[in-house]
Amino acid sequence: MTELQGLTETFNALSFDKITGADLRGIEKLQADVIPEVKRLTSAYRTACEEDDTLAKIKRERTADFAIVQQKRNEHSMAAIRETVYNPAADTSSLGMSRLALEREAELLQDTLDFVDYVLCPTARDKKLETRRDLLRAEHLEAALYAALSHATMLEKLERAGLSQSHGRVVAFSETTEQLKLVAAECHRQAQLADSELTAERAALITRAQQRHTDGLTTRAEATFAALELSRINTTEGTQ
Questions:
Q1: Given this model, what pLDDT does residue 210 score?
Q2: Which of 6, 68, 98, 117 suits 174 as a labelling partner, its CA being 20 to 30 A distant?
Q3: Exposed e or buried b for every residue in 219-232, given b needs 16+ CB within 10 A?
């Protein structure tokens, strides 16, 4: 269970309709624990966004590099072919070796792009969406706590004054509470949308991966990465 889940469960144990002035200190304590969690997730989300942006930049740069190498490879290949056609004494072995270097460079860049495209970028996007969802959940919890704090504060004042909750003075305080509850409700809606987006993205990723595997489009970079991950998992399990 994560820190956020634990804090959420603690809050959910409180029934808003049954909150009394006696709950005020507990709500304040819970709020004090939630605020740093919101800050932590805000930082984590910023980091996830930066990682996603960095990979997008890397992809653009490597794509440009790949285009340059492809052009060099094609020009070199055609020059080697022409040399072989028009020069019976052409050193085909030497020409082939110089061409091989460009072929290997292009192959490496293609593997790099495939690794970024099909492994790193999906992982980074998933982390970004997951962290965003968690941040919105934490912000919803924080907003709900502000509403609960307002409500408990009002009740504590009434109880100290010996007034019942039905007294007319409740209206002035409850308007603030109701506004805070509306803010919390909107935060909850945003968190649910983020959760739905994450769920849909993960399902789509699995579907795309399965379809590409069925069509025989799994790249060498993906296969190599998967093999290494499987080996790592087996090694880890074997040492436990």
A1: 94
A2: 6
A3: bebbeebeeeeeee
CB 187 within 8 Å of CB 136:
yes
pLDDT confidence of residue 159:
76
* DSSP string for 106-153: HHHHHHHHHHIIIIIHHHHHHHHHHHHHHHHHHHHHHHHHHHHHHHHH
Q: Which of 126, 121, 128 has the alpha carbon at shortest distance from 41?
A: 128
Q: How many CB atoms lie within 10 A of CB 70?
A: 15
- Taking the domains of the chain in order of start, what are their residue ranges? 25-234
Q: Which 8-state DSSP code applies to residue 213?
A: H
Question: For all residues of the chain together, what is the average pLDDT?
Answer: 90
Cβ atoms 117, 59 nearer than 8 A: yes
Contact 140, 186 (CB under 8 A): no
184: its two tokens:
């919390």
